[in-house]
Specification:
59% helix; mainly alpha
Length: 165
Amino acid sequence: MLQPPIDQSASASLAKQVEQYLAQGGQIQHLPGPTFPAPPPRREPKRQSGSAQPKRRGRTSASIKRYQEYGPRVLELFERGDPLKQIALAVGRSEPFILRCLDWHGIDGRATRAEQKVKANAGFVEQLRVLARDGHSMRYAAEQLDASASRVRYQAERNGIEFRR
């Protein structure tokens, strides 16, 4: 059932009267409208959302303890210039763990990893150039450098190295 529309002129005049009343220092103590009864008091205290146990303060997580435990050895090997794979083998953890540990200690291991790859590729490309200049095939270069044929082909195309067929 629809209510009849409110008369615009009557509501506008009522609004003006309220503004005048408030401008003269009047106060509205109670707004008209329905009042709702207060909810009944709880029998038990309100439950916390999530876990039933309160969170323990002042304790460090197990991962942070592991970063603190392995950190000195990881940093020592990293500063020595060892690749991440070698560090992971020496420490007995995975490469992602080594990266997270370095990150926790404030070192961006991913950037260094990219630099290590560039250095490794630079030597690889030089060896490819020598083998191509000597007239060897891609397959022979792959065998000599202990790399896959696709890697040799990719690096050759990327660096403009021509092999004989």
